[in-house]
Request: fold
Amino acid sequence: MANPQTTTLLAGFAAAIADGSVEVVDLTTPLHAGTPALRLPEPFVNLIDFSLEEVSAYNEPGPFWRHNNIHTGEHIGTHLDAPVHWITGRDGDDVSQIPVRRLIGTASVIDLTEQVAADPDHLLGVADVEAWEAEHGQLTEGTWLLLRTGWESRGGSEAEFLNADETGSHTPGVAVDCAHWLATERSITGLGVETVGVDAGLAGGFDPPFPVHHHFLGNDKYGITSLRNLGRLPATGAVLVVSPLPIVGGTGSPSRVLAVIAGAQG
Ligand code: MN
Reply:
């Protein structure tokens, strides 16, 4: 038998969503053939973009139904990186093995919008996190750290979103020492970002290369990319729900990411 208090809590939660005192915010980028995706330089090989292939549309191949095949890479659009995505996490969980309990947790939002507007290569540093913690308290166990950068405003154009020139892709991320510190000194579940990947655009040249991937996935933490609407979340107090597909052997999956927040009536 469930604890009556728990039953009351869950019923209250559902009622609060129904009456708007708790609001659900979609943090997911719509998934279509034009959704911006990572473009690795040669000699690396890119994943395919998302596409829909019509199989029937109430016509001869299926007179009463419409259905499509989907074609996509794992790491396309808003998606989750599982530990096995990176060589440092190769013995960790694939996306089907991630404990579902860890996919729901509080959100801790750090706002770097001003710094990134001034410098698209801006990197989150340990001092930024410590300043946030001085105001909001230490990052709690199991929280998702979300980087608000304003980058979502570029999402309508892949060129603007990737912001690449002859020197590389200029998008914000996390400094090497901060990635290591977050992955080892804080019991967070993962990092969520607005950009195409959890590492900065120039992070291939860092030591180690791609430090968020290196340290987070190697320490059983996750990444989520291409988030939107982070500006609607409070710094603390939201609950995140992340829903990757349980692809057996998968290194990641496009995911619907929802935040639950206090509503206007709340
Ligand atoms: Mn990925």
User: Anything to note?
Assistant: The two ends are 30 Å apart (CA to CA). The domain at 23-34+74-262 is CATH 3.50.30.50 (Glucose Oxidase; domain 1). Residues 9 and 15 are 10 Å apart (CA to CA).
